[in-house]
Design brief:
alpha+beta; 8 strands; about 35% helix
Length: about 150
């Protein structure tokens, strides 16, 4: 355990306070872009994932890159580069019945999330890695397997 962790300043694999503040500012900017009808960031299509905090019960909104999965579903990857799943993934899995997405041109859509495994995950991962090789590169450097989540409209 690091000295910072012993001093109560952070958990292993978690970003620090400044990093989290910067991420919140950047997320707010991307969310505004999506809501204004511009849903691409750094060459990736982005949706706004609406969840509920697993501990706080407060509404949360997070911009997340997505990949179309047929006409009415989206695939998202819980990456983030750290040694733990991102908060949005934990919140989504804690309260899946309260999840929704905002996609350019569709407004808010309630969704049902399902973490893919086995052949379903492999097939989805091939699609994602072909569309965004950098995600596959990040995965190759991580000790954990990035969950792939299918979001299907309810």
């Amino acid at each position: 355990m690091s000295q910072e962790q012993q001093a109560g300043k952070g958990k292993a694999g978690a970003p620090g306070g400044l990093s989290r503040w910067m991420q919140h500012k950047a997320n707010a900017r991307v969310i505004r872009k999506v809501r204004r009808g511009r849903g691409a960031v750094m060459g990736m299509e982005v949706l706004v994932l609406n969840t509920v905090g697993r501990r706080s019960g407060q509404p949360r909104e997070t911009p997340v890159a997505y990949f179309a999965d047929g006409a009415d579903a989206w695939l998202v990857v819980a990456s983030g580069g750290g040694s733990r799943h991102p908060d949005w993934h934990e919140n989504l899995m804690a309260h899946p019945e309260r999840a929704s997405v905002e996609v350019v041109g569709r407004g808010q859509v309630p969704v049902t999330p399902r973490v893919l495994d086995g052949a379903d995950r492999e097939q989805a991962w091939r699609l994602i890695a072909a569309a965004q090789p950098r995600i596959a590169k990040y995965q190759s450097k991580s000790e954990r397997q990035y969950p792939v989540v299918r979001l299907t409209p309810r």
